[in-house]
Structure to design on (242 residues):
C-alpha cells in the first residue's frame, strides 16, 4: 500500500521549470527613463522551458520576505514563451527611490495543467528615480545583504493539490491557497420547476468591509471546470411507405 501511494503521488506531481534570469546582472545600475530589458533561460530544473506557456513579468522592490515586496509596474503583463525569452519596457521614474539593490524582477509562469512557478531575478539599482518607498518597503530593503532576490515559489498542478481524480475543484474554494483558484461547473438546470420555495445550496457567509487599503491579492484568477456532456446516437429517420 505504501509503495502504491508513493507511486500515485509521483505520477500526480507536476514540477514546473525554474527560470534563471540572465539580465539585468546582479548588482548592476540601470538608468531611470531607459528601457528595462529582462532576459532569462531554463535553469535546468524540472520541466523544460519549452513546456511553459504564458507568463507575467513585473518590476518589484522591497525585501526578500513577501510582506515587504511591492509590485511596481508590468514589464509584460501578457507574455507568451513562444515569443522568446526576452521582454523590455520603460517605467515611470516616480515609482520608487534610487536605493541600492532595491529592485528586482518577478516572473510568474504557467506550465502543464495550470501549474505555476514564481521566480525572481537578482537585485539591481535604478539611478535617477524621483519617487520614494513606503516605510515597510524600505525596512525590507534595509534587511537585505547581497544581491540575491526572493526565493522561488512553486504551485503544483490541480491534480497534485487536490489529491484525487476530481481535481482541484473538489477542494473547497475557501480552502485553496494556490495562485489559481478552481471552481466546479455550475449544476445544469432541470427540465421542470418543482421547487415551491428556493433554498440556498450553501450557508451564508459574512462580508467584512475594508476600512483601510488592502494588500495585493495573492490569487491571479479563477478557473471553472468544463462542462462534460454526453451524446446519444439517434436512429435515422425513415419515411413511411403507403
Amino acid at each position: 500500500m505504501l509503495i502504491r501511494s508513493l507511486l500515485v503521488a509521483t505520477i500526480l506531481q507536476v514540477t514546473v521549470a525554474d527560470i534563471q534570469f540572465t539580465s539585468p546582472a546582479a548588482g548592476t545600475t540601470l538608468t531611470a527613463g531607459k528601457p528595462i530589458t529582462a532576459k532569462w533561460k531554463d535553469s535546468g530544473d524540472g520541466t523544460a522551458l519549452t513546456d511553459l506557456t504564458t507568463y507575467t513579468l513585473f518590476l518589484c522592490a522591497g525585501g526578500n520576505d513577501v510582506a515587504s515586496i511591492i509590485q511596481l509596474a508590468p514589464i509584460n503583463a501578457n507574455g507568451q514563451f513562444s515569443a522568446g525569452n526576452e521582454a523590455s519596457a520603460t517605467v515611470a521614474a516616480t515609482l520608487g527611490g534610487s536605493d541600492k539593490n532595491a529592485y528586482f524582477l518577478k516572473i510568474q509562469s504557467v506550465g502543464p495543467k495550470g501549474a505555476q512557478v514564481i521566480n525572481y531575478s537578482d537585485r539591481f539599482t535604478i539611478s535617477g528615480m524621483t519617487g520614494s518607498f513606503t516605510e515597510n518597503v524600505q525596512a525590507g530593503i534595509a534587511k537585505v545583504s547581497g544581491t540575491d532576490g526572493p526565493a522561488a515559489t512553486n504551485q503544483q498542478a490541480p491534480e497534485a493539490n487536490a489529491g484525487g481524480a476530481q481535481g482541484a475543484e473538489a477542494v473547497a474554494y475557501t480552502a485553496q491557497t494556490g495562485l489559481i483558484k478552481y471552481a466546479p461547473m455550475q449544476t445544469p438546470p432541470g427540465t421542470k420547476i418543482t421547487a415551491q420555495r428556493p433554498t440556498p445550496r450553501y450557508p451564508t457567509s459574512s462580508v467584512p468591509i475594508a476600512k483601510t487599503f488592502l494588500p495585493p491579492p495573492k490569487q491571479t484568477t479563477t478557473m471553472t471546470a468544463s462542462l462534460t456532456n454526453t451524446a446519444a446516437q439517434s436512429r435515422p429517420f425513415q419515411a413511411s411507405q403507403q
